[in-house]
Amino acid sequence: MKIEAAAKMPISFQTHPALIAYITCGDPDLATSRDIALASIAAGASVIELGVPFSDPLADGPVIQRASQRALRHATSLGQVIELGKEIRRQSQAGLIIFSYLNPILRMGIENFAGAVQDAGIDGALVTDLPVEEAEDYLLQMRRRELATIFLAAPTSTDARLKRIADVSRGFVYAVSRTGVTGARQEMAQDAKKLVQRLRKYTRLPVAVGFGISTAAQFAAVGKFADAAVVGSAIVQIIESNPSNEAKSVAEFVRQLLD
After folding, report:
1. N or C: which end of the chain has fewer CB within 10 A?
2. Alpha carbon distance 176, 192 (integer Å)
3. Greatest Cα pair distance in the chain
């Protein structure tokens, strides 16, 4: 698979370690999701992952599953998430990534999706269940528009597969800290550090670690060997637990992580 490289690297990390914050868009509603994203950026988040709610989120634990169910009750769609990204971009130059399963993108059409992401000023996408081996059409459309393509690298990946992921990734590489689904954990697996060390052999891109980071101590620990940490379930849990005060509560949590 030979895909021309994008001409630019659109995502920059403002701190070390940088914070990549995930939200499930449409939970509790799109307007609140916008406020949460902007509040997170103001509190120091470098990148926002705009999660597209999906009916069968196989990689996600119970917290994000519940958030997806709530968002889908409002019929939140991929198109609406892209439009939300466009609204956020008008107010911020922070990194914005669409975080989706493949099926909503296929329904929209890969070419249409890439065009809409570009038009919205969103930096790129992470498609959780798109294997790098089957991503040629997707990569072609994204490269034409100079969009970031972020892939998941797992502790169980072979060195050959890590190299392949590194070769086609743009923006950053997402290192999964452990096998299994998303969700906060009390301790970070040692597999994460080993995986980042393995990836360093194949890429100069920043490496972000995700799945299970929920405390300031974990965030700081990840920063000793990775460029960024992705925090998702912990943020979504705060949103769930603080109705009518979501944005302020998330911003306070983000500041605690970065202090």
Report:
1. C
2. 7
3. 49
For residues 71 and 241, what is the distance between their CA atoms, to the nearest angstrom? 15
What is the amino acid identity at position 254? V
Q: What sign results for the dihedral spanned by CA atoms 241, 246, 250, 252? A: negative
**pLDDT tens for each residue of 177-192:** 755 444 444 445 578 9
Type of residue numbered 33: S
Is residue 7 in a domain?
A: no
Residue 1 lies in a domain: no
DSSP character at residue 179: S
Q: Establish if 5 belongs to a structural domain.
A: no
Distance of alpha carbon 151 from alpha carbon 131, whole angstroms: 8
Name the residue type at position 117. V
Count how many Cα atoms sit within 13 Å of the Cα of residue 92 in the half-sphere of its side chain: 25
Residue 15 pLDDT class (50, 70, 90 cuts): confident
The domain tally of the chain equals 1
Q: Which residues pair with 91 in a beta bridge?
A: none
For the chain, give percent helix, strand, coil, nearest 5: 45, 15, 40
pLDDT in tens, 48-89: 999 999 887 665 678 999 999 999 999 999 999 999 999 999
How many beta carbons lie within 10 A of that of residue 112, not counting itself?
13
**b (16+ CB within 10 A) / e for 84-96:** bbbbbeeebebbb
* Active-site amino acid positions: 49, 60
Residue 12, domain member (yes or no) = no
pLDDT exceeds cutoff 60 at 2: no
Cross-strand partners of 231? 21
Residue located via tokens 């958030």: 67
CATH at 27: 3.20.20.70
